[in-house]
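The instructor's notes for this session suggest beginning with a concrete chain rather than abstract definitions. Hand out the sequence below and ask the class to guess, before any prediction is shown, which regions might be ordered.
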Amino acid sequence: MSADENATVLPSLRQRRRAVATQEIVATAESHLAEHGLHALSLRAVARGLGMTVQGLYHYFPNRDALVTVLVAKAYEDLADAVKAAVDAAADEPATLRFLAAAEGYRRWAITHVERFQLLYGAPLRHYEAPAEGPTTQALRRMGEVFQREMFDGFTTAQLAAADTPVLSPALRAHLELLVPFGPETLPPPASALILSAWGHMHGMVVLEVFGHTSFIGEHQAEIFHMAMRDLIEDVHRRIPTLPKGTPAAP
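After discussion, reveal the predicted structure:
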């Protein structure tokens, strides 16, 4: 192979300029979202904020949905980064405390970036549908993997398969077997049921706070959340049987 073929292909000047312009458009859209809310978002408003025409914006985003998809994927990625950073900061702690760190990282990002969180989980935009298995799905899956890892760290597949949950219907069990990856295998259905229930509890508390429904708790919301998440992870772990003596733990 020649040196030219071995050389790294650098983006062209035109590609670099397009990348910079795209980043500026996304940043402007995020600022507009934070100031005016999701339902005021339009290509015309973003173009006006950039001092360009809507026709010029079409060279980068052919329609509003294309821009929304990028905003949603980026919000999920930023949320996942915040959760991962919180876990990394607690890397030397036991798994229970790492899960608590992940949950609190999730809450902290949500209450700091209210409009972006509502973009993900608020009232859906009319006529918008995220592309199936597109960047938004991939970004959400990445965040889910962090919670899955911290919740079930140290447990074997056999332990997770024997978790104490209500009897699952055959149809639900079959669906859950395909739903959540677990290393080289799939996450056993009882464990999938546990993590979905736990996520609903955690996310529900954050949504209530973000939308102002728990404002009556005032400055104590963080403490209530921490207490609830501690009880949640302890309950999940109580439902997973311990290993017989002499059995090696999961790596």
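Then share the key points. The chain has a mean pLDDT of 87. Residues 64-89 form the longest helix (26 residues).
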